[in-house]
Structure to design on (293 residues):
């Protein structure tokens, strides 16, 4: 296929919320014939003015293109929108946020209806979509053949990262990254709470905090290396016993600053459990194993 042919390949998009609208605009701007559908028709009007074909029904929108991208609120809304619609021969790309289990079930559901299926997890907020250098990308998993066939079109709004044939893997990668982000946000909240009542400008403190967090991210690779070879003492620079001695200072400081330790305490308790198991010379990597149920 020539570049010209790729640029002109058509697609359908179901869902014109904040994310769907951002995606639609990038495909229209790149010259792709785009058919759109949204439950509330009013949201399609601005896109019609920009060149999109507006379908009045989901069935009509799906019939318009082989490639059908779905970006609805949640998996239940995908079910509601697509139930009873003929998907035979379609390439269905579901960018709706889901759990790994929901994505795997949706892949089976799509196959049973004669469609190839690719799930996506969007690692961006709408203003990052189609913005050069924003770092936006989408995890994809499921049909490799579908991904390869439509890669150039899928790469228009954001970068692509294909993580495997297992349709659940995109959601799993997405949620794992978001979960780690929430842990970081929890730590950031605690840190700001500690300085809150003092004569310390949050805006002066912020770059110190941000730089420290960036410096600490190298620990992610050390943890991965230890998980990979099973030796949790390899390359340890701050062992668990030493860190736990320091935890008393963290808790005491929270008390002195009249700050609740409720965000900090669960992680420190897991470290204590490792120590009680005689693992004081290891890193904190064992916490990963403690979390497995
Ligand atoms: P919005 O809330 O802006 O839009 C939701 C969309 O889903 C609308 O088009 C809405 O239609 C439609 N919808 C909701 N319920 C149904 C239903 N039962 N049947 C048919 N359509 C339905 O959400 P976003 O566009 O921001 O998000 C879309 C997806 O993208 C979500 O899964 C979200 O997690 C994901 N995402 C969003 C990000 C963001 O920052 N916004 C970041 C990363 C991922 P209507 O207009 O009629 O209400």
């Amino acid at each position: 296929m020539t570049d010209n042919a790729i640029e002109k390949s058509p697609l359908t998009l179901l869902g014109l919320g904040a994310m769907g609208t951002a995606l639609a605009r990038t495909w229209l701007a790149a010259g792709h014939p785009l058919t759109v559908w949204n439950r509330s028709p009013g949201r399609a009007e601005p896109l019609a003015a920009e060149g999109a074909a507006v379908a009045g029904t989901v069935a009509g929108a799906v019939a318009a293109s082989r490639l059908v991208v779905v970006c609805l609120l949640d998996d239940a809304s995908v079910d509601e929108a697509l139930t009873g619609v003929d998907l035979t021969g379609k390439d269905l790309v579901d960018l709706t946020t889901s759990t790994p289990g929901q994505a795997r079930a949706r892949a089976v559901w799509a196959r049973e209806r004669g469609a190839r299926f690719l799930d996506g997890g969007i690692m961006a907020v709408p203003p990052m979509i189609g913005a050069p250098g924003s770092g936006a990308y989408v995890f994809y998993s499921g049909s490799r053949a579908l991904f390869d066939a439509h890669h150039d079109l899928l790469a228009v709004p954001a970068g692509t990262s294909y993580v495997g044939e297992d349709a659940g893997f995109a959601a799993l990668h997405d949620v794992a990254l978001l979960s780690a982000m929430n842990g970081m946000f929890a730590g950031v909240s605690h840190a700001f709470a500690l300085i809150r009542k003092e004569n310390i400008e949050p805006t002066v403190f912020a770059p110190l905090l941000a730089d420290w967090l960036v410096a600490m991210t190298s620990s992610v690779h050390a943890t991965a290396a230890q998980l990979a070879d099973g030796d949790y003492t390899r390359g340890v620079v701050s062992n668990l016993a030493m860190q736990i001695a320091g935890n008393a200072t963290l808790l005491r400081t929270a008390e002195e600053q009249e700050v609740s330790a409720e965000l900090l305490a669960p992680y420190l308790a897991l470290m204590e459990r490792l120590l009680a198991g005689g693992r004081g010379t290891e890193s904190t990597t064992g916490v990963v194993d403690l979390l497995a149920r």
Observations:
- Strands lie at 11-14, 34-37, 53-54, 67-70, 91-94, 116-123, 137-142, 159-162.
- Residues 169-195 form the longest helix (27 residues).
